[in-house]
Write a structure and sequence with these properties.
Elements lengths: L7 E5 L4 H12 L3 E6 L2 H12 L8 E5 L5 H15 L4 E4 L5 E2 L7 H29 L2 E7 L10 H20 L6 E7 L6 H4 L1 E2 L15 H14 L3 E3 L2 H12 L1 H12 L3
Parallel strand pairs: 1-2, 1-4, 2-3, 4-6, 5-8, 6-7, 7-9
Bound molecules: NADP nicotinamide-adenine-dinucleotide phosphate.
Length: about 260
């Protein structure tokens, strides 16, 4: 049967922004997509968009779940394999931002960021890796260029992404013998619901120091490419690579520039 030959991807945070665009990009290329997020109505909208695609496209399985819940993530992988027969790729994308000083930020906000961006990625990985071993599959961890920069006033978010990038490097070696590739994707500023939903204090962030904004579709294409080419460390655009390089040479200067971007008083 034709559908048995299709590859299967599980994408967390697929109800908006980068994850939503990635779900469409994979489905368009014939992959079956398990799309996970908490907002069922957004997943229903995505489901409809996939159903209305022309040409030879994959199917969409909507999974309403919270990445912070270990049991829910185990169940999500079980449902994916029960429906499509296998799992070939995990895109650990669900995440959110936070702004404010380390000391004055609301603890609940910091905890939400850490539980989502760190525990959420770990739960996703621990649930998916046994199934990925069977297909010698692929993992894309959605990190951020902030993992490599000095980021005052959004330090906990940046540290959570440094956790993700560090995890990617270690996992790559742990999973080498299983034939699983791990991509550390360092994403730069992208147009999505990310800024609106960012927890914490309002500031002068929208200026963002003149940093150009990408479309989520551009990041989605880079994700698909990373899986197809089994890339290990990816900058979506040269600008982001340049920024990280400049930070390495002049950390104080770049740190102060990002400080202006997020200043809270
Ligand atoms: N936008 C940027 O400038 C930028 C830059 C670098 C890196 N990134 C990273 O890119 C990833 C995607 O962000 P985005 O820009 O596409 O933002 P977005 O539009 O806000 O999308 C975030 C996604 O994560 C999901 N999510 C959040 N908490 C969740 C939870 N507890 N359980 C399950 N799903 C959850 C949201 O769905 P529900 O609310 O429906 O659950 C949503 O689908 C994030 O990891 C972010 O850190 C973004």
């Amino acid at each position: 049967m034709e559908s048995d030959k299709r590859r299967v991807v599980l994408i967390t945070g697929a109800s908006s922004g980068i994850g939503y665009a990635a779900a469409l990009a994979f489905a368009r290329r014939g992959w079956h997509v398990a799309a996970l997020a908490r907002r069922a109505e957004r997943l229903a909208e995505l489901s409809q968009a996939v159903a209305m695609m022309r040409g030879d496209h994959g199917e969409l399985l909507a999974l309403e779940a919270d990445v912070r819940n270990d049991a829910a993530m185990q169940q999500a992988v079980e449902r994916t394999v029960a429906r499509f027969g296998q799992l070939d790729a995990l895109i650990a994308n669900a995440g959110l931002g936070q702004r404010g000083t380390v000391v004055e930020s609301n603890w609940d906000d910091l905890e939400t960021v850490m539980r989502t961006n760190m525990d959420g990625v770990l739960h996703s990985l621990r649930a998916a890796i046994p199934a990925l071993r069977a297909t010698r599959g692929h993992i894309v961890l959605i990190s951020s260029i902030t993992a490599e920069l000095t980021m005052p006033y959004t330090a906990v978010y940046a540290a959570s992404k440094a956790f993700v990038s560090s995890l990617a490097r270690a996992l790559r070696l742990e999973l080498e013998a299983d034939g699983i590739t791990v991509t550390d994707m360092l994403v730069g500023r992208t147009e999505s619901e990310f800024s609106q939903k960012r927890l914490g204090q309002a500031g002068r962030s929208s200026r963002a120091g003149g940093v150009p904004v990408m479309r989520p579709e551009q990041v989605a294409e880079a994700i698909v490419r990373a899986v197809e080419r089994r890339q290990r460390r990816v900058f979506v655009r040269p600008f982001d690579r340049l920024l990280v390089w400049a930070h390495r040479i002049m950390p104080g200067f770049v740190g102060r520039m990002s400080m202006r971007q997020y200043e809270t008083r």
